[in-house]
Amino acid sequence: AAAISPAGAAALQRLKPFIGAASLLSLFNRSTLIRTSPILLHFSCTAVSTSPSRFCSVVSAAVPARAETSEVKYGAEVRQFRKKLRIVDAKGGPDQGLNRLGETLSVSGWVRTFRVQSTVTFIEINDGSCLSNMQCVMTSDADGYDQVESGLISTGASVSVQGSIVASQGSKQKVELKVEKLVMIGKSDPSFPIQKKRVSREFLRTKAHLRPRTNCFGAVSRVRNALAYATHKFFQENGFVWVSSPIITASDCEGAGEQFCVTTLIPSSGDAADSSPKSIPVTQDGLIDWSQDFFGKPAFLTVSGQLNAETYASALTDVYTFGPTFRAENSNTSRHLAEFWMIEPELAFADLEDDMACATAYLQYVVKHILENCKEDMEFFDAWIEKGIIARLNDVAEKNPVQLTYTDAIELLSKANKKFEFPIAWGCDLQSEHERYITEEAFSGRPVIAIKAFYMRENDDGRTVAAMDMLVPRVGELIGGSQREERLERLERRLDDMNLDKDGYWWYLDLRRYGSVPHAGFGLGFERLVQFVTGMENIRDAIPFPRSPGSAEF
Questions:
Q1: Calpha distance 308→455 (Å, rounded)
Q2: In the chain, which segments carry CATH 3.30.930.10?
Q3: pTM for the structure as a whole
Q4: From which residue to which does the signal peptide run (predicted)?
Q5: Bigger pLDDT: 269 or 151?
């Protein structure tokens, strides 16, 4: 008999209660069961037990097919995957679809608007692939017109439309789709909250599950995706290795103590809101007994992947992390999120000059990528969100940042003919108003690298560290970086100065004991980058599902 792998045998045992031992055997025969071949199991949900737990177990193993699922024949091969034809494919390119005149094609999407006239009906659908809609022109002889007459077609409904590409009689688009067949996939209730009239972004934050269907947030989503793609592309092309840094950590990279605690000491089964504090174990001294927690000590959601990236840079030379980070800062401003994504490269055998060069090259690379590949969306932002944003980004892509020392920045601000809310003095942190004045007014919109945490390398003057911030218009600080402290004794002294427990950083100190090298890196808040290139004023509109104090919906 043919052998079954251990993983396959375990999977079959899990399925046994649902379809029976005899049915399991009939799934296979000796000639087709091969250890090295993947097997796709297809289930019909109607044959599954009504028990909720069993339903979830079986469905999780099933592989959903397209909406028009047909009967699967025993032994049939899985069909070849093909990229869907999207509206951007039909209307994109320099000809804006004119090269497809006469072609018959099918597009699926959601109804944005529709209007019925005496002899013709116009339906505009969008599938999220681009800003512009596909205008579909339908006459009464088209298959499925009865769905228009019955009132099933409404804003928000999902449809599939088949027809031929013809030249448009209107001025808003070059081509349109002459409908031959319309299929209603999912009707939309009249309460659909996003109609043709404009609504505020504050309102749309309460409908975060539906706001991607608007022009604005569809464009933000596509630009965010393009920025993520360009980020990986830049670092991969320059020899960096992507490292998956942990989300759960026992370290506080920033030393600010604003971390979310991860614990199982609070009961997670049932309704956690009804949990009694008396259920939390305590020591004889009345303190929380962390030894009984899942990790045996306090653990937190990470605020940065930098320390972990440094460990891999000490072996792989140039690495970067790109993932979610968290900060329990009780701030309700338009600049802060509790959950956000960070891009954090680390360069071994590098100093602050190398760090600034990398940060500049990265920013110019991703901005150029957006300007070249998201033209329609950027024109929308330029027209409706921030006038002149394309020209501003072109300046960023073409002009190198101005370098300014911390001391020079303080002097410049002190001489400014402007009253600041926060006073200026050597040794103080630059506030957002200071950063924006420097880049927007003092240097007329050019990015500025201001050369200014325990991991930063101490300069020989004993007063400053080898660190830098990149300041950009409207956002202020976009990138913060430094040359890391590679000298063991100075790093230990820095930890002591900040009252951090050195035992908790033993592994980080080990990097300085075993082949330490000069290294540098920077961190970039991805949502701030999205803000910078789209012009969105509130950072909560730069991420799909914003998390902030008092808000964890969706």
A1: 13
A2: 219-262+299-541
A3: 0.85
A4: none
A5: 151
